[in-house]
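[Meeting: bench + compute handoff]

Bench side (C.D.) handed over the final construct sequence. Compute side (W.E.) agreed to return the predicted structure before the next meeting so the bench team could plan truncations. Sequence as handed over:
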Amino acid sequence: MKRESGKGLKNLNTLIKISLLGSMAFLLMLFDFPLPIFPSFLKIDLSDLPALVGSFALGPIAGVVIELLKNILHAAIKGSSTAMVGEIANFFVGSVLVFTSGYIYNMKKTRKSAVTGLVVGTIVMSVLAGILNYVIMIPFYAKAFGMPMEAIIGMGTKLNSNIKDLTSLVLWAIIPFNLLKGFAVSFITAAIYKKISIVLQGEVSFPRSAVTKK
């Protein structure tokens, strides 16, 4: 039937767009770099950018799927040096950002709701990143790589004398780093989304032979 065929094509269009955005996110994830004002183990990348764009254009669930695809590709192609703990943490933190931002924006698609979503999403993401690093990530890295906790904390102390223990490392390094990363990705998203959304909200053309008529 035509209605079912049209729905199938729409779903296929969405899957193609999610796959493309997920692949772009994976490629951006490969280009990470440290910032001199933060400990060297904190590296920034723009891999959440395609997921944010997808969350705005295709819905918050699509953004989460893009985050999942990005991390699956990263683990499968580049390999995981953290027994998948890093990829899982990246997925949860990134998903909170894109889902929160996309959900708020899609409730009322205005510039104000977009800005509100990006700001709220960044703050919530940064808090979650702080909790995950305090409870799971930093203790895991210390144990997995045989590094004393004092050595990891010392990497932060060299840059900021306020960092004296794990709690202050999270408060003065982990959370500020994620705030900076979140606002940087959000700024770029706000700058490019309008142009990209025209493409994402359009339909991918298929040859007529690829459509089964009933």
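W.E. noted at the follow-up: The domain at 2-30+47-204 is CATH 1.10.1760.20 (Arp2/3 complex 21 kDa subunit ARPC3). C.D. will use this when planning the next construct.
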